[in-house]
Amino acid sequence: MTEAANVGARLAAPVHPIDPDALAAYLRAHVAPFRGTPGIEQFQGGQSNPTYRITAGDRQYILRRKPPGKLLPSAHAIEREYRVMKALAGTDVPVPRMLALCEDASVLGTAFYLMDYVRGRVLWDPAMPGMTPAQRSAHYEEINRVIAALHLVDFTAAGLTDFGRHGQYVARQVARWSKQYAASGIAPIPAMDRLIEWLPRHLPEGDETAIVHGDFRLDNLIFHPTEPRVLAVLDWELSTLGHPLSDFAYLAMTWRLAADEFRGMRGTDFAALGIPTEAEFAAAYARRTGRTALPDFEFYLVFNMFRIAAILHGVLARALQGNAASDDAIANGNRARLVADVAWGLAQRIGT
Q1: CATH top-level class for 10-116?
Q2: Which pLDDT tens digit goes with each residue over 205-234?
Q3: Half-sphere exposure (CA, 13 Å, Cβ side) for 30?
């Protein structure tokens, strides 16, 4: 249909079709004039919000929309994605240029937004096969720089003071994902049930507030085609105001989980590959954010494993209902049990 997708991205015929005539009318009225019918291709992967590449004339855009069907409470908040990326334009956090937000579900069936298509590379394997040790090291330095830059953004100056509640982020997140997990309506996971009891009893005393991405991981970054430079951070559905160490620990799960659990690299020979160890990566983040230590880091790892397990459990529920955004949703959803077991094992080592 059109040129190949970004390296590492996968396009296919839409699983959730879009009316091309309705989209064409909206594009002409709100984005840019063009002739003909827009090309519509859907990205395949882990997105809970269906994501498309739109080709209209000589321009290409990304469209993200809410999925059809019954949705869990507060999930798929594409309006928040649009707002935070628009607010971060001009900061040290690279984001695509936002073009239009349509909250009128009658246009395409669900709310959606449009942004520029950023050309670059999407990396899925944290071991970064095919790179030299020096290249891997440079890519991880850049990942560290970007997440530190996000947590250093002045959210008040960015107009995001009301983007979330201030304080007690983790306590509220534990409650939220416990409810989302219970609302999925499918078979429970024993480790998740134990974690729901354990987490509230071990909440850290310290608190901070920053803009948090909520899903900051390798495949949500677009790198420059040839340089170790992030051009865009994507998939801001879970972003809010929250605890930065929780957000960083989510990224650091990569070192604690295996590839078959959740895109991790536990057991990797980091020195041979040129990839920093977890301790080295954490020390670089602490240095960039002006910290001397990362207190309660093990707890934040447990919490994030619990949270991703709850998310994967929801992915499985949507897949079983026929509302998943990708064709590998059932396989990904079934990983919830694996991640929850790792989290419970770590929790037990922390203490009762």
Answers
A1: alpha beta
A2: 989 999 999 999 999 999 999 999 999 999
A3: 17
% helix, strand, coil for the chain, step of 5: 45, 15, 45
Q: What is the CA radius of gyration of the chain?
A: 20
107 within 8 A of 26, measured Cβ to Cβ? yes
Instruction: Look up residue 317 and give its two tokens.
Output: 């529920």
Condensed to tens digits (0 to 9), the pLDDT of residues 27-57 reads: 999 999 999 999 999 987 655 788 999 999 9
Q: How far apart (Å, rounded) are the C-alpha atoms in residues 284 and 227?
A: 20
Q: Is 31 strand, coil or helix?
A: coil
DSSP result, 124-142: --TT-TT--HHHHHHHHHH
Q: Which among 148, 150, 149 has a CA at the least distance from the CA of 285?
A: 148
Start-end of H helices in the chain: 20-30, 78-88, 105-108, 133-152, 169-183, 190-201, 244-256, 259-262, 270-273, 278-288, 297-321, 329-333, 336-350
Q: At what angle do helices 297-321 and 190-201 cross, to 10 degrees?
A: 140
Q: Domain spanning 133-350: which CATH class is it, in words?
A: alpha beta
pTM (two decimals)? 0.89
pLDDT at 1: 42
CATH 3.30.200.20 domain range(s) in the chain:
10-116
Q: Are strands 59-65 and 98-102 parallel, antiparallel or unpaired?
A: unpaired
- Position 67 pLDDT exceeds 90: no
Give the chain's count of helices (H) and strands (E). Answer: 13, 10
For residue 237, is pLDDT > 60? yes
Q: Tokens 């979330």: give the residue.
A: 164
Amino acid at 304: N
